[in-house]
Amino acid sequence: MRSLLFIPGDSPKKLDKGLGSGADALLLDLEDSIAPPSKAAARATTTAFLKETRTAKDRPRLYVRINGLATGLTDDDLDAVVAAAPDGIMFPKAEGGAAVIHCDAKITAREAIAGLPDGGIDIIAIATETAKALFLAGTYAGASKRLKGLTWGAEDLSAELGAEANRDGDGNFLAPYQLARSLCLAGAAAAQVQAIDTVYVDFRNEAGLRRECEEARRDGFTGKLAIHPAQVAVINQVFTPTADAIKRAEAVIAAFAANPGAGTIGIGGVMYDRPHLERARQLLARVKR
Ligand code: COA
Ligand code: MG
What we know:
The protein has 289 residues and is α/β, with parallel strands linked by helices.
């Protein structure tokens, strides 16, 4: 998934608009974009939308962002939405693999009650929203077969840290949030799941978004969260491997295949060794998906 678009789960108009946005996934939100008195209405609107949309052809993947385990709202959220069979649950304020196991168990029980296949619903966890979570970013491996991705957030973390800002005057993340970003990236790689970059909230600034997407791709993220439909095209473009990158990857794989005993190879005056081969394989696997 290259682009994952947040949509407040209580807005039928935005939900419909999201369907035509071109996003690879829609994140129907029951958490931070929904005020406490509107949670029940948002569950009902989100569930109705899932039921209506699930069978549509060529639809994006449909995830629901539930409320975190500390809120006391998680069970009511899952009671409402699991029966409508979303493709996945976005699990916020995750504190390591143990929390994912907890979330997995809650989903498993409800899949059984609803008569859905066991394990059909995926999880993407938001791994850096509390201070404690930062210290647990390396604990996701093996927690759950449902876990398909990790992403990160700076807003809740800055509130918890008591910070005045999370970006500098030029819009660059400050040190604590660069750390969170790196921990998400390494945590995802350690768990062998997709690393998904956080939102870019300045949604009218296309150049800024593009730059942040390119920096994320450079570092190993393979997708990015969006908050506005206008961000989807840029995200999809940056995270779609270019024809050039595909050609280079194929050349690396072909060169190693032609020299099965070689640990390192020169192509066009540049050295390639095993990590390059692994990277080339990963890129082609992503293209195939
Ligand atoms: N998903 C689907 N449609 C959206 C959308 C979204 N995330 N954000 C905006 N739209 C729609 C608007 O409804 C509007 O539709 P219209 O042309 O039919 O009236 C159109 O896109 C243009 O929107 P615009 O006027 O540019 O923005 P806005 O002021 O209406 O909305 C936000 C701005 C930030 C409130 C809105 O983008 C939003 O709700 N984003 C998601 C917030 C969220 O889920 N946050 C939680 C995760 S951090
Ligand atoms: Mg949040």
